[in-house]
Amino acid sequence: MAGSINRGASEIPNSVASVPSWFRVATAALAVAIFVVDTATEFEVSVSVLYVIVVLMAGRFLQRRGTAMVAGCCLTLTVISAILTAPQGSASIGTANTLISVVAITITAFLVFQNQARGLTLQEQIVDRKRTEEELRASEARFRIFVDHAADAFFVHDGEQGGKVLDVNRQACDSLGYRRDELIGLVPQDFDPDVDAAVLQWVRERIQAGEVCTFETRHRRKDGTIFPVEVRIRPFWQGGQLFHIALARDITERKNAEQKIREQEVELRDVLDLTPLLVAVFGPDRKRLYANRPALDYLGLTLEEWQAVPDPLWFFHPDDRERMAEQVYTGADSDIPHEFEARFRGQGGTHRWFLFRDRPLRDEHGHIKRWYLSATDIEDRKQAEERLRASENRFRTLVDHAADAILLRGEDGKLVDVNRHACESLGYTREELIEMTPRDLVDPNEDPVFFRSVTERLNAGETFAFESGFRRKDGTVFPVEVRVRPFSQAGQRFFLAIARDIADRKRAEEALRASEARFRTFADHASDAFFVHDEHGTILDANREACESLGYTREELIGMHPFDFDRGQASPPSEVTKARLEAGETVTFESVIRRKDGSLYPVEWRIRPYRRGDTRFALSSARDITERKRAEEERERLRQLEADLAHINRVSMLGEMTASIAHEINQPLSGIVSNGEACLLWLESNSPHLEEAREAARRIVRDGNRAGEIVARIRALVKKSAPPKSKLDLNETVREVVALVADEAKRRGITLRVEFAEDLGAVLGDRVQLQQVVLNILINAMEAMANSASKRLLLSTSNSGAGQVCITVEDTGPGLDPNMLGRIFDPFYSTKSGGMGMGLSISRSIVQSHGGKLWAAMNEDEGLTVRFTLPQYHDGASVGIA
Fold first, then answer.
1. In the predicted structure, residue 530 carries a pLDDT above the cut 70
2. CB 279 within 8 A of CB 285
3. What is the pTM of this model?
4. How many CB atoms lie within 10 A of CB 813?
């Protein structure tokens, strides 16, 4: 566009350039001559009127601006000449002549301007017309190319001779398979199988009404194939003759796309039925067309029932209907997308909060074709928002009732809000504090350097704390600890300060310092060695006991490391200790310390980490445990003696049972010999009986295993070192003891009866030690019944409640004197003439070490009952065992 304008401007005839140069000189000379004549002569007539000629000549070779300047110069020369010319006669005549000259020059200049404007306009019109003609010819050429290369078929029909084809474009030939000369002269019925007299009549009526006729039909190619088209027919007149121009667009792809869209719509409806959103489709007038399955299920309606509801506001909560009517259905913005929240009615009349979004679908003209609405259940979010609002109210109440003063400062340095405690502690009202600056509240004696430091840290965005003094309205000053944190909100920067009155803390700190002095005295007189370490373990301080026990002076100890005198610490344990201290744990362990003179003694270290400000320290105590170690060694020696005594007791009991044990072992050995001889006889016969021999061999294996089990049980009882405690089936443990004493009881003529509880709980214990207890009690019971007429022995197990299991042994012996029952468990007390008196004492020690209890009681009729209980096993530990 800019290029065509420039070309037009260059094509305007340049009348200024066509004037010869002498013409310009002549014009200037004429102006000078008129001035000289007008000034030097004394004519009564106005010679300056001749300046009109100069203006007319200037208009020939100058533009409007130049012409205006020449006219202005002529007017100036006229005025100058009138001033310089002496008046000859009346002064009014000279003035009139001058005015006439000025008016004439002005009118002439105005007429020249108009003439120049008309000439320029005419020249531009001529250029524009030529340009328009050229553009029209170029446009016609482009249009011909465009039509011939259009993707749609163009047909020009005769409007008065049955629609005969007069011209076509190349696409019409390509789509129908005809040449151009073959198509010209055909009528629509020749290639459109759907056109009949009714269709033609309908087209004529539309065209006569001045409408553009659009319809879908089918075209038949020259090869007979048929394809769908959309035809648009428009009439036009040329040279007094009516023509029809028809555009036929192949809509095969569109039809396929429409079919695909229909299939996709079905698929989309299936998808919408699976989405948790409530989705609905409305017509342009908000008529309800479709709702997905979740929406209908929520409403409890069928699609037809939903469509039949007359009032759309019925679906909303009564408190929301007025807003819905104004915002969505009847408002000025009812045809634009909406997003709103409202309570939506569900089945049963319940309402839940939903977020609604509706969007219009518009056609190419901007008209609404459909409304699409989705609804998201936000009931949970609404409840959360309600809880949040309640939380905010609680928080505001909390802030207003906080024990610290809270001040909010704006970016301009003034306070914008304070809490109630700030007003109460400073003595101002809230209105008085707002618009004040923190500088107005701080102790006026505060160092200005301190203020600059605080300002720099605030500007750097730091969160920090400092101590200062606040001045009340009455002028009194009190100490405060202030913690300041900058933050941004809505593009503005704020500073939140929390000021805590620390007057009480200052007094407490003073009291603490006094307490520390007392503590130093206490620590210096403590019986344990105390050390203060830094985070690397270096000693920073030590008490007097540390110096006396190690033989160093306090100055010598400060700067040392525990490695310098602790012989028990090595690198790996110290790393473990360091890790536990970093985790904040209190660490206790034993070690050996070397004094300055080289002597060693055992200590118990107890180290506890603590912080003072941002620095970590550790406080350790070293207690001399020499005496405790000696006591532990003595206890270990006594424990070993007790274990040896228990072992001797087991061996002595087995010695007493030698005959029974020999008989028990002899039975499987006799069986092995007998079965071995039988096996040899079966194999030595003329026809060996292999099956019988195998059976005899199996019995040999069985008896051998039985003998091995007897020997294993005896070895377990004789073995000096017992295995650690484990989860035991007490019935099975007791059953093994019964197997050992069964023959002994039979030999003594004693009837041994066993009753095992089926649901007996497991215990945690030492199998050998518990078997020793049961064996000891059984042997004592059998010996007690040596001279009894009735020899019955009952061994039973049971659950005794409270997480305990009980083992009971009842005999029918003579019993004991009730006064002597309490002594039978004492060491070296025995009712037998040759007894040592250690069996029951050892048994009670074993039971107690398992967390149980052992006691005896007289039976009502005859005999004695001995019982002991053990805690049941629970989750890897036995109740009652430390």
1. yes
2. no
3. 0.31
4. 22
